[in-house]
Amino acid sequence: MAKFYYGSINLTKLIDEARKMHSGFMRAGEKKQVYANVTLWHNDTPDKFGNTMSLQVNPAKDDTKFEKFYIGNLKEGESRTEQITASDLNDIPFEDDLPF
Fold first, then answer.
1. In 10 A of CB 38, how many CB atoms?
2. Cα Rg for the chain, rounded, in angstroms?
3. What does the pLDDT look like over 17-32, one tens digit per residue?
4. Quick one: which of 7, 24, 8 has its CA closest to 69?
5. What is the pLDDT of residues 30-55, one digit of tens each?
6. Residue spans of beta strands (DSSP E) within the chain
7. What is the distance between the alpha carbons of residues 24 and 90, in angstroms, rounded to a whole number?
8. For the chain, which residues make up each domain, given as ranges?
9. CA–CA separation, 61 vs 23, rounded Å?
10. 12 in helix, strand or coil?
């Protein structure tokens, strides 16, 4: 069964380090989008807040100018979904003029 984790990312820290030209960021793809090289750590024991994972940005392999830095933590989530019923589907509008 799949597991999911939830948490927060420190977007301010991420943007600040990108503006400093940290080597953990790169442009790629046709649209030259910006990506961050990250590592996700799964810890054996939760921290005092119940987090079991940490997320960090890594500098380029040969870069000694910049260090890794943490941008967030995650914890395992609990499923909050409920099984749908036939009456739940009645509220969904159905368009029957699809082109296929």
1. 15
2. 21
3. 988 999 999 988 898 8
4. 24
5. 988 989 999 999 999 999 999 999 99
6. 5-9, 25-28, 33-36, 38-42, 53-57, 69-76
7. 49
8. 5-77
9. 9
10. helix
